[in-house]
Specification:
This protein is α+β, with helices and mostly antiparallel strands and 405 residues long. The protein is 36% helix and 24% strand. The protein has 13 helices and 17 strands. The strands form four sheets. Strands 3, 4, 5, 6, 7, 8, 15, 16 and 17 form a nine-stranded mixed β-sheet that branches. A four-stranded antiparallel β-sheet has the order 11-13-9-14, covered by helices on one side. It has a two-stranded antiparallel sheet with strand order 1-2. Bound molecules: glyoxylic acid (GLV) and manganese (II) ion (2 copies). The site of one manganese (II) ion has 5 residues, from loops.
Amino acid sequence: MPFTALWDSLLPLGRYAPTGGYRRFSWTEADSACRAWFNDQALKRGLRAACDRNGNLWAWWDCPGSACGAIATGSHLDSVPDGGAFDGPLGVVSAFAAIDLLRERGFVPARPIVVAAFTEEEGGRFGLACLGSRLLTGAITPEAARELRDGSGVSLAQAMTAAGLDPGGIGPDQELLGSLSAFVELHIEQGSALAGAHAQLGIAEAIWAHGRWRLDFAGRADHAGTTRLEDRRDPMLPFAATVLSARQVAARHRVLATVGKVVASPGAVNAISSSVSAWLDARAPQEQALDAAVAKIRLTAEREAGQHGGRCEIQRESFTPRVEFDPGLRDRLGRALAARGITAPVLPTGAGHDAGILAASLPTAMLFVRNPTGVSHAPAEHAEAADCEAGVVALAAVLEELAGR
Ligand code: GLV
Ligand code: MN
Ligand code: MN
């Protein structure tokens, strides 16, 4: 099936019309529509559809008689709140389209090829990015994962049970991992380096170290119209100082620091908050710079909270060290593309990916598709159809190289 037709079949699922963005959160109705779409695409192609114990989806192009590990490709179908259409889905759609292209050409694989769609890559519901691949590889314990809660207090275990899955079965799956020999994730570029280099495609070099921290500022609720300024213990003030400090520290340490989510409780316009919870996302090319920056932001938060008569508790919710993609696999991709006249510069990225988590267990690589504005995690995220089609051609070439005779 041509890329555009396949792309259009997924596009309406989980779209939130008022913003034009996507709300594809794991184990919701939108997620279940995306899962049905995936299984339907597998069925249409005669691929064997499977859902692993962690809720990750797989569509196998089996290769009877081959004892070789499979080449996995794909990405994820979930989104950040009001995310763009491309982050994740582009990799899954391109994987199916690349298989179609290979079959049209009569390609016969010498080892299995499998399309994957990992659960909750964005952490959009349960707060932990790459949840499905972390569970698969053992980067989070099943006990900790089962207890993750969404914004309404629903646990992952409850959400999986409601979706008809057994949360008792989640956890590392060595048998599945052992059946894979490499994973290649195609993804929209989340920056504009390729646009600047006039290149349609790129190859990933590394993923920056990154993590998420939860900051809970406690204060004292009181009346906005009657409490004298000197009597207040307003947690909003240390929160605000911390956000400003994060920006300054980031600039000084040449890292990125973002507070993209904040919850003030109880949330009355005419009352001082009793508490403010905020989430810090911080990323850096090197772990040392990240540690130093986060330590400074932490100090500011604690000091400012004390100065305003409150306190701040800080908890690291996730951390992923810098990941260097397998150099041998990366070079092989580069050579396979170059042999077909495809230029693909090698780029680092500050965005997290399942390929980064799987890199601890097997050789992984990534292909990037040009994003003209670089905007991502937002409705304006975009890639031109011609670049997506070039991505499919490149992915097919890579699969041919890795799974061919
Ligand atoms: C996922 O896309 C992330 O980088 O947070
Ligand atoms: Mn992604
Ligand atoms: Mn993302």
